[in-house]
Amino acid sequence: MSASAEMPYFIKPSLNLDAEAKRAAYEQAQMAIDANLDGETDRILKMATINSVLKTYLPYYYWAGFYVVKNGRLSVGPYQGTLGCLHIEFSRGVCGKAAREQKTQIVDDVHALDQGSAHIACDPNSASEIVVPVFNPQGELIAVYDVDSTQHSSFDEIDQGYLEKILEKHFRLSALE
What we know:
Layout: H1 19-37, H2 43-57, E1 63-70, E2 73-80, E3 87-88, H3 93-101, E4 105-107, E5 128-135, E6 141-149, H4 157-172
Antiparallel strand pairs: 1-2, 1-6, 2-3, 4-5, 5-6
Helix pairs in contact: 1-2, 1-4
């Protein structure tokens, strides 16, 4: 896949937040997500809503989306941002590693990783990334949630804590159809 390093006209560059502002933004986003998804069981609606709300409240989210487990690999699901990779093998990239190890991955500088194996450059504007595994009520991996930023070191334990909590509540601890 060929990608241009030019920032798309419809996407704003990422803007990092300090810890206090980040926590406040996540608290507001979490309330909005919980209010909108109260009683919802459709996994696609949940994924689309979570993307929309988080990308609205967190200004350093450049690309946010789910890669769903399908036919033994990850396939792009609901997302917001530039074109995402269509399929990712479990053996490749940060998303594949999160799926393989079933644990959250935080990368401060994706360009420092071995390109093509440890990182897949779907968009050259992405500089840092967090990927969180998503489980269903039976504890099976159903997706990973991938967020990229155009800034280095955008993601930390605050992001990890909130994202794991949001995804657990709306997928692992919730009825899904």
